[in-house]
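User: C-alpha cells for this complex, please. No commentary.
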Amino acid sequence: MQQLIQELKVKLIDILNLQDVTPEKFDENAQLVGGELGIDSIDVLEMVVMVEKDYGIIINNQEVGEKVFSSLVNLARYIKENSSRASS
Amino acid sequence: MTDATVYIAGAGIISAFGSGLPTTEKALRANRSAIKPLTLFSLLQGIPLPVGQIDGLDTPSSLPRTHRLARIAASQAMAGGSGPPDAIIIGTTTGGIATTEELLRKLEDNKELYRYHGLNTVAQFLAREFGCNGPVLTVSTACSSGAVAIAIGLSLLRRGRARTVLVGGVDSLCRLTYFGFHSLQLVDRNGCRPLDENRQGMAVAEGAGMLLLTTKAPHGRHAELLGAGLSCDAYHAAAPHPEGQGAFMAMQNALTDAGLQPEDIGYINLHGTGTPDNDLAESKAVRRLFAVPPPLSSIKGATGHSLAAAGGLEAVVSAIAVTQGLMPANTGLQKVDPLLGLTPLASPAEGSVKAVLSNSFGFGGNNGSLVIGASGAFPRHSSIQSCGALAIHGYACLSGAGNTMATMEQVSRGISVAGMAGMDHVSENLPPQLIRRLKRLPRMTLSLALMAQQDSGLGDQKPGAVFMGTGWGALSETHDFLARLTASKEQFPSPTDFVGSVHNGPASQVAIMFAATGPNITASGGDYSFEQALLTADLMFHDSQRPALILGADEGHTTFSPLLDASIAPGTALADGGGAFCVSRTTQGAKCCITIPFFASSEGNDSLEAMLTSLAATDRPSRYALILAGIPAAMEEQGEAQLQQFLALAQPSAPVVRYRKFTGEFASASAVAAAFAASFLKSEVVPGNFLGGGDIAIDASRNTILVLGFGHFLTAMELYVDTQQ
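Assistant:
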C-alpha cells in the first residue's frame, strides 16, 4: 500500500504538473480536490484517465469519483481494492 | 453614427434537421430529435456516441466541412438581400480542423493542403463567394461564438460602419470536439435531454446558422435584432459559474440593450446543453431575472449542441418564433428536474411572440444573449453609447528577446528581436500554481496582460473586458490533444488539452486573473488578428468604470507553425510573441491613443484609395513620425506592391519600416509593432538605429505612428499622443 501511495504521488505530480510539490511534501491524507493544491474538476478527469490507463479501473460515476478523489490515500485504497494490476 | 433599426432581412440554417427554414420549422413542429449515433468518421473502439450529424454532405471536396456548411446557410441568408454585404462576421471554433485531422493521420506534409485550417478562412471564403470587400471578422468564443458574432454585427450597423452584414456561426463535427467533450464526461450516451432529471450531458453536433442584418428597411415583415448582451463568468476554464452569474449578466445586458423589460419577453430559447451544471446554472439565472419566466425550451435535445453554430442556429429559430408564432418544444424531456424550478415546453406551442431571448454560453464563461423581436412591436430605443478614443494607459510586448524592456532595448539598437523566448522567460512574472496546466500561448497571454496592467499605473482598477486576437490559437494544446488521441488509439484523449485548445482559452484565463466580467472576445483573423481584436474592442467596449485589455499573441510550434502558416517556410527558425494594451475611454493620464480607421479586403478595386480617404477623414491631421508596414512573407510581392502604391498616393514624409524584419514572422506580429509604436511615443523619440538613420523626435508636428497591414487585407492603425491634454 505504501508503495502504491508513493507511486501515485509521483504520477500525480507529473500529470497535474504540480511544479512546487515534491513526493515528500505531498500529504496523502490532505484534501485532494478543492484543497491547497488547486486541484479541480479538469484534474479529476485527468486522474480518471490515468487510473484507467495505468490500473485498468474505470470511474465514470460522479458519486464514486468524489469519494475516490477526496484524498490520495483514498485513491490508493480504491485502486488496491479494485485492481489486479496494482503492485502492492 | 446612426441608431437605426436592425432588420433580419434573410436567414439560413443547416443542422441535423436538414437544410433550410421550411425543413427546420417542420422538424420543430414535429418535436422530432435528429440525434443519432455518429457515422461521419470511423472509430477505433467503442460504440459511436449520439451526435447531431448532417447527412447528405458526402461528396468529396478539398473544402473543409465547416466551410461547406457555412456556404449553404449563407446562401440562404443572402437570398434575402441584393448585392454583396458590407461586412461579414462569423463565429467558429473548428475552421478546417476536420480536414487537418485527416491530413495529419496520413502524415501529409504538403502545406498547401492545410490552407483552409485557420478559423479565418471560413469567413474569407464566404467573402469571396459573396463578393464582400469590407471588414471580414472571425470570432471564436467557444459555444457562444455565433451569438457574439451577431452581437458585433449589431454594433457595426448601429455605428453606421456598415448597412448590411452577414453574421452567424458554423462548426462541423470533428475528432477534436467529439473526443474532447467525451473526455470531459459531458456527453450523454442516451441522447441529449436538456433540463431532464436524468440528463447526463450534451450531444456534440454540427451546423450553420446565418442572418443577413440590415439597416435598410426590407420589403415585407421581418424580425428585428433588438439587442445583445455579453458577459464573462471569469470563474473557470470549462465549468459555468454555479450561480449562473455570467448568464444572468448576459441576459440582463441584452434586455437593457434592447430597451425591454423581462415581461416583454414572450419566449426564452435556452442554451440548455443538457449537462447537469449548465442547465442548473442557467435555471438559476433565469429565475433571478424573471419573476414569472415566459414559455421556454432548449432545442438541443433535437439538434444536439452545434457549438459555435448554436448561437446562429438559435437566432434563426428565434426569428421563426416571432415571424411564425412557433415556440419549439424542449425535445427529449421526460421528467423535468425539480431542482431547476422551470417548466419547459413539453410540446411545441403556437401563439404570438413579440420578443425572444436567446442564450449562448461557452467555455471560459464567454456568454452572449440576443433579443429578437417582431417587426415594429416595440418603440425605437436609443442604445448608442458615445465613447471617446481608446486611450492606452499601459502596454507590453513579448518577443524572442523577452519582455517589454528587453525587447525595446534591443529594438532601439536596431537589432531584430525575432525568435522564441524560453518558457521560463515567457512566464517569469506568473505564479507556478496559476500556470501549471497552461502551455505556451496562455502563458504568454497572461504574462502580457499582467505586464500591461502593471504598466498602466491604474493600480486597483483592474481590467473588466478582454479583447484578444490570435491567428492560430493554442497550437501546443491542439497538437498534444490530437497526438495523444492517436497514440492511445482514441482511448485516452486529454481533458486538460481539450479545454486548453479552444481559441478563447487564453483570454478567459486573463478574465479569471482580473475578475473581468465584461465582454470577453477572441478574434482570429490570420495575419490581421490583432487588428480584428482592436476593431472589436472599439465596437464593444463602453465601460466607463473599468479599463479593458486588448491583446494579440501567437505561439511558435515546431510541427504546426511551418505546416499551417503560409509565411513560415519549413526549416526556418520560428518566432513568436505578442503585445498587450491596457486601455480606457479617458485620455487623462494616458500614454497615447490607438484607433483603427481602416480594415477592408485588398480585393476591392479602389481599396487603397479608400484607405487614404479613411486616414484623411480622422479629426486629427496626419502628422506621421513613422510608418510601420506589415507585409507577411507569404504575401511579399503583393504586399510590397500595395505599399509602393500607398506611398505613391500618400507621399508621406515619414520613414517606412517593415516591422516583420524586427519581429519575425507570426500572425500577431502587428501587436508587437503597435507596442513598438507606443514605446516610441512614450519615450518621445523614434531611435535612429531602428530607422537606419537619425533619431526622429516625437512632438506636436510629428505625434502619430501609422501601423499598416498589407496582403489579403489592408489595415491601418494609428497610435498618437493626444496633444490637446
